[in-house]
Amino acid sequence: MFARFYDGHSARALDAEAALDGDVLRILVGREERVWRVRDLTVEVEADQARVSSRKERDARLVLPVGDWSPMIGDRLVEAAKTRRQREWWLIGGLTAAAAGVVLFVTVGVPALSGPVARATPVSMEQQMGDNFNAQISTLFRTCQGAAGQRALAGLGDRIGARADTPFDIRVRAVNAPMVNAFALPGGYILITDDLIREAKSPEELSAVIAHEVAHVEKRHVMQAVWRNFGIGMLLDLIVGGGTGAGQQAVILAGQASELSYSRAAELEADGRGQALLHADGLSSMGMAPFFERMAAGESHDGVSDAAEFLATHPDSRRRAEAARSAQRAGRSALTAEEWRSVRDVCGVEGSDNPVDRLKRRFGLGDDASTADKGDQVSPD
Fold this sequence. Notes:
By secondary structure, the protein is of the alpha+beta class. It is built from 15 helices and 10 strands. It starts with a strand and ends in a 10-residue tail after the last helix.
């Protein structure tokens, strides 16, 4: 039958002859023949004209009367369209299943594997990761400049760390940060915020917090949290087409290191192991329960808001306080009276509730020269 053919390169209509040959539509334009498979055809009907195109040659069009097209093709184009739609639905289903598999792996598989992967992570790799995290986070949270207090904290970390079964050197330091918190980084770094030091009522409470963080390092809970967050980063890569960069997650995590969260089981394990580390050194573990109870009750200087910062990464405090109280033992104080005073003032303006003084502590704006000789100042690790 006769038809008009548009080749997609010009607006000129070309005389053509079209004929159905089995599963293909043959189009003869002058001496040139085009062969379109029926299953690739799409048809648009406008008034009494049928406009036929092929997925393989999208810009070209064959135009002929509907009255000529319908008897020639019959129901075959309908069947071809059904087959094409079925293939499309299979493709959509396959992609959906693949996406669901990725999400399931990242949200369930990665957390489940984080423990074995963390334990299998080479020590050198974790140490290098910790060094990188520490360098990044030092730009966010300034190290407090009270040299005597930093020495006391470092010494306490050394004593507790010596009792732990870990290849990492435990390095504890105080930092200016707008939160009541303590957190461990990979490789043995432990950061104590100035506000948490202010909330601690005794050396026993502070040593309990440090021992808890040492236990996280020993049990490699820190690396488990890191691997879980790497899994989320990989999922973001897939969602946004690689825009975040899984390799950039270390930098992102460094900025969020204070929010690396652990499971409740890991928190309870760190509580128990932390108390055991204190007992092994003959130190009192009677500060853990009171600290958790006060945080849970919101009895800090700023009330519930400060306590919520601590509880955000250390959940279930009341139950943990009960478990800690049942296992606590008396022992010697972790710090001498002089060391405790230096720790309390490690970030300057010791114990002050003055809003200006608190801002100075948080953002490192205190007058360092008034509290320590410049030769004794401690630089960030």
